Amino acid sequence: MAIIEITSLTQPGVEVYGSLTEAQLRSRLDPSRGIFIAESPKVINVALDAGYRPLSLLCERRHICGDASGIIDRCGDIPVYTGGREILASLTGYTLTRGVLCAMHRPEALAVSDVCRDARRVVVIDGVVDTTNIGAIFRSAAALGIDAVLLTPASCDPLNRRAVRVSMGSVFLVPWTWIDSPDSLKPLGFKTAAMALTDNSVSIDDPKLVYEPKLAVIMGTEGDGLSREAVASADYVVRIPMSHGVDSLNVAAAAAVAFWQLRRRE
Known about the structure:
The protein is of the alpha/beta class. The chain has helices spanning 22-26, 41-49, 69-75, 85-92, 112-115, 131-143, 161-167, 207-210, 228-233, 251-261; strands at residues 2-5, 35-39, 54-60, 79-83, 100-105, 121-125, 148-151, 176-178, 191-195, 202-203, 215-219, 236-239.
């Protein structure tokens, strides 16, 4: 390993941890050079287990032989940037309470057909932009048996630093990719279930939903929910019954309820 002491915030190699925006990290004009940041030993280990390739590490000096030691051993011959707490906080904008950051190569986007080839339950995230909600949805998807996650282009990037952190690495456990429209799933044999409140919606505990062999659950934006077009084109419109005059749940909470209730029964 190459231990490199940070002496300047403009030192070559450390810009990925501070000065580059999320959009610049994604390198949309050249996805093959895209990078994302994983934080904390637990999350980085999940990413490494899933086959993601590390580019460099950043940690305080005291963590090199402590919290970061196992990660450093796994990552092989890559740069390990280090320094005192103050300079690292100036670089990243916050104190590294979890010991280590890892810059990793962004994988190429998968085809929808490949992600869904053996899937029976998938979720389509349509226009959800809050990083915390994206991370929470992925965590519930991994825990509650969702086979794949598909996101429309207006949704937040799952490899956003905060989304990765909130998901506790679940973004590395569930196959995911981008999709233009939920309608793209219908030729693959999926029925679509739009989570929305309409006059013709069915309750989430309707038995016919559970026994659909291939079902795509569509979750909409935090504020306005799904568009009229998305609701109109869905095979089912599904509601979660509410009490005490509450009209809806946060999208991440609603996703967890939907994933549990709509898991496939044999």
